[in-house]
Design goal:
204 residues
């Protein structure tokens, strides 16, 4: 039930919503990179909130441990919730992907404009933990979009035979959602360890 192979199989079964998640995240990055004044103001509010939290974590007795707790709990709670929030027609996972992509795109572009080394920013600041964290978040949103898709299909389906098959899909989704959540949280746990240790060390 909790086998890694089963988790990989479930990801393969939602390849369409996984592809959509990846595309939405990519669009978000692009929008953040070429942001307008309105979008820039919105993203700056998000970044300012992150800065204030970061300042508080730096002032704690054990900054490294504080960073780990915040990163892990923040990402894990949001990723788990976004799966179940997909029941609202998949709208919230789409917004979540776009906003996170926009913040990332805007931040990288701003640092590039300021003359920061893109090698430092991407290879040292993002890649070590992002190579695990970003896919984990995209996977979570993929499952959220899958849930939203099931809702859409259920609303429009009138054929009794197909509705029976749809019931099986609902049953399978909720049967597998627990183990899949566990694997997503494990990935985010590993990413949080890397971000609060390796990434912090590389960026000092």
């Amino acid at each position: 039930m909790f086998k890694l192979s089963s988790f990989i199989k479930d990801i393969a079964l939602i390849k369409r919503t996984m592809m959509l998640s990846t595309i939405l995240f990519g669009i978000g990055i692009l929008v953040g990179w070429i942001s307008t004044d309105f979008i820039e103001q919105f993203i700056n509010q998000q970044i300012e909130g992150i800065r204030q939290i970061s300042q508080g974590l730096n002032e704690s007795e054990n900054p490294q441990w504080s960073y780990f707790k915040f990163i892990f709990l923040n990402n894990s709670i949001k990723s788990v919730l976004i799966i179940f929030f997909g029941i609202f027609l998949g709208i919230l996972p789409m917004i979540f992907l776009m906003v996170n992509g926009m913040v990332l795109g805007y931040l990288v572009h701003s640092l590039a404009v300021q003359g920061e080394s893109m090698f430092e920013v991407i290879v040292k600041g993002l890649l070590p933990h992002g190579i695990i964290e970003v896919p984990a978040i995209i996977i979570a949103c993929g499952f959220g979009l899958r849930l939203g898709t099931l809702v859409w299909i259920s609303i429009g389906q009138r054929n009794d035979g197909k509705r029976a098959n749809l019931g099986q899909q609902w049953t399978y989704f909720f049967k597998r959602v627990g183990p899949n959540v566990v694997w997503i949280v494990i990935l985010l746990f590993i990413a949080a360890i890397i971000e609060s240790t390796v990434t912090l060390w590389l960026m000092q």
